[in-house]
Write a structure and sequence with these properties.
28% strand, 28% helix, D-amino Acid Aminotransferase, Chain A, domain 1, 256 residues, alpha+beta, 7 helices
């Protein structure tokens, strides 16, 4: 039971990670725990107990009775109980909760719609997997209402930032691009895998600061996160994209 004074519940004071489970085991959990530990430091929360976090995720996976089916294991860490108001208690006692649910691979490429909701690149939370995800929720809802699968989010300077729940990549003139973290992008675990894969393939890869027009001249666009791996994009607004062989090569090299 989560008490009603839990700061994650009342204020969104906390972090989360979503880890893929495949074949009954967690996929690259250390990368997620590294990011969660860095988030704790950024928010001034006590150091992450990695052993406890791993136990919670494995317990949730076992209790889910999903066997070897593809699953999403969500680990939520809150700042624990607190009184009324914004100030944290003098002694923070974080709360860890893990759940597991089926996570079938999405079928086919994604269609994106450019959302009016902007990614706040000036907020420290933009680069954290914080519990305050309402902007992403609203952007995704806006995209779905437009008949798309996912939102394309720009930041407050009209620069490319991310999708509602994924990192963004595009290919132009044989080179790979992704929004720089300073644009409000999250340091995604699969994003890191794809950048490493590009280096291994000898492909030029750039973390870029670019406007929406950069995608109009792109040869291909794709999304990444831990659950979807690498997912091609078939259209953004009214602009279609054709399949590109490099997307599949990157996916294979990244282990997506």
């Amino acid at each position: 039971m989560i008490p009603p004074d839990d700061r994650g519940f009342t204020l969104g004071d906390g972090l989360f990670e979503t880890v893929l489970a495949r074949g009954g085991d967690l996929v690259r959990p250390d990368a997620h725990l590294d990011r969660l530990a860095a988030g704790c430091a950024a928010l001034g929360l006590p150091a992450l107990d990695r052993d406890a976090a791993t136990r919670e995720m494995r317990r949730a996976l076992a209790k889910s009775c999903l066997g070897e089916a593809r699953a999403a294991v969500r680990l939520t860490l809150t700042a624990g109980a607190g009184g009324r108001g914004l100030d944290r208690p003098a002694e923070i006692q974080p709360r860890l909760v893990a759940t597991a649910a089926p996570a079938p691979m999405p079928q086919g490429p994604a269609r994106l719609a450019t959302a009016l909701v902007r990614r706040n690149d000036r907020s420290p939370a933009a680069r954290l997997k914080s519990l305050a995800y309402l902007d992403n929720v609203l952007a995704r809802a806006e995209a779905r209402a437009a008949g798309a699968d996912e939102a394309l989010m720009l930041n407050t300077r009209d620069e490319l930032a991310c999708a509602g729940a994924a990192n963004l990549f595009w290919i132009a003139e044989g080179a790979l691009f992704t929004p720089a973290l300073a644009c409000g992008a999250l340091a995604g675990t699969m994003r890191a895998q794809v950048l490493a894969a590009a280096a291994a393939l000898g492909l030029s890869a750039q973390e870029a600061v670019a406007g929406r027009a950069a995608l109009d001249g792109a040869e291909a666009v794709f999304l990444t996160n831990a659950l979807i791996g690498v997912r091609a994009v078939s259209a953004i607004d009214a602009r279609p994209f054709q399949p590109h062989s490099l997307v599949g090569r990157l996916a294979a090299a990244a282990g997506a």
